[in-house]
């Protein structure tokens, strides 16, 4: 089944190489955050025989159970979704004898993608859309009765590189 993923094009500097000229990059346009009820309905739409209440209960309990397992130092693999792993952040000490549990500053959660989440490009159609800035400007313009098309044209960056105008040296003359 094909899914559509919307993106906008932004011009920005590469933060790793700030001396390089700006380039155009894609940025995913998140439609919305799906809540538990949305996911319950989505699971049901796949033909699940479980009730909405059962699915909701499992999803809500799952978070608590994963937390408990990670706090106990366990990894949690959920079918082909992936593996939740815990890790520690700590302050180092010069001597082993100086290190105590007080040096541990955070218990972190890491996620290793499973088979269902790898190769997300497969089955996706990418569709370019206007930037969030342009969307906000268009919405504001529409409320004020302003020409939305003009606002969108102004707020949407040109995604084609500029071509310099030809100079007389670049233009062949009739005598050549």
Quick description:
Helix content is 29%, strand content 24%. It is α+β, with helices and mostly antiparallel strands.
Plain-language structure description:
The protein has four helices and six strands. The chain has helices spanning 36-45, 52-71, 132-144, 148-155, and strands spanning 3-12, 23-28, 76-78, 82-90, 104-113, 124-128. The strands form two sheets. It has a three-stranded mixed β-sheet, with no helix packed on it. Helix 1 packs across helix 2 and helix 3 packs antiparallel against helix 4 (148-155). The chain is extended, with a radius of gyration of 26 Å.
Give the structural class.
Answer: alpha+beta
Mean pLDDT: 84
Number of strands: 6
Rg estimate, integer Å: 26 Å
N-C termini distance = 58 Å
**Count of helical regions:** 4
Strand order of the largest sheet: 2-1-6
Tell me roughly what share of residues is in helical segments: 25-40%
The major pleated sheet works out as: 3 strands, mixed
Tell me what portion of residues adopts beta-strand conformation: 15-25%
H/E series, N to C? Answer: EEHHEEEEHH
């Amino acid at each position: 089944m094909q899914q559509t993923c919307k993106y906008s094009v932004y011009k920005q500097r590469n933060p790793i190489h700030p001396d390089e000229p700006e380039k155009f990059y894609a940025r995913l346009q998140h439609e919305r955050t799906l809540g538990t009820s949305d996911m319950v309905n989505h699971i049901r739409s796949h033909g699940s025989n479980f009730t909405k209440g059962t699915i909701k209960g499992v999803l809500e309990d799952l978070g608590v159970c994963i937390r408990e397992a990670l706090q106990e130092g366990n990894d949690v693999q959920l079918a082909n979704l992936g593996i939740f792993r815990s890790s520690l952040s700590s302050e180092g000490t010069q001597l082993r004898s100086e290190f105590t549990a007080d040096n541990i500053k955070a218990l972190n959660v890491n996620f290793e993608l499973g088979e269902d989440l790898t190769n997300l490009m497969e089955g996706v159609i990418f569709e370019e859309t206007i930037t969030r800035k342009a969307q906000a400007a268009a919405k504001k313009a529409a409320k004020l009765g302003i020409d939305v098309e003009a606002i969108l044209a102004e707020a949407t960056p040109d995604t084609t590189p500029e071509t310099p105008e030809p100079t007389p040296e670049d233009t062949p003359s009739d005598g050549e």
